[in-house]
Description:
The protein has 3 helices and 9 strands. It is α+β, with helices and mostly antiparallel strands. Strands 1-2-3-4-5-6 form a 6-stranded antiparallel β-sheet. Strands 7-8-9 form a 3-stranded antiparallel β-sheet, covered by helices on one side. Helix 1 (37-58) runs antiparallel to helix 2 (61-82). It starts with a strand and ends in an 8-residue tail after the last helix.
Amino acid sequence: xxxxxxxSASGAPIALRRRQHSASCRELAVRCPRLQLRSLSAVTSxxxxxxxxLFVLSENSVVLSAAIFITLVGLIVYLHFVKIDxxxxxxIGSLGIQVTSSYASGKxxxxxxxxxxxxxxxxxxxxxxxxxxxxxCILLQDPGDPQGVSEVVPLFQSSKPRxxxxxxxxxxxxxxxxxxxxxxxxxxxx
Length: 190
């Protein structure tokens, strides 16, 4: 297993872990920085101090209870649905591509794309907040038109790695896709 450090589009440090399971199976994972206890404590304290200030002015204890409740619910929602710690890509030449997002709460979201649906893996560019950013995406083959693309599946949407990191992932994916094109599939052999 090999790990390299990169920066995200916003300048935050990220790490790319590459693990080669076999010649046609590779796992690539981008890890984002973990949630810092200092920033979590600062936000919680600011909300609770504001609620205490309102409590002093209004002398209503419901304000404090509501602030505590809203802070706890907000934290649970953030950890379970928003904060992604790791995004990984498992490319298996004979089967397909598995995309997994691991949230800070431990929840995982997994999507599998069969290799027969994959037309290509490309690096695309987009204009975002007056900047050009690059992102990796999977082009899905249109069943009705072999030359067409039915869908574009963007990868690493949360971590947003910079171009140098995306090139490493792109090269790994292309090596496996090229192996698949050069070796005959079992359905092609008669």
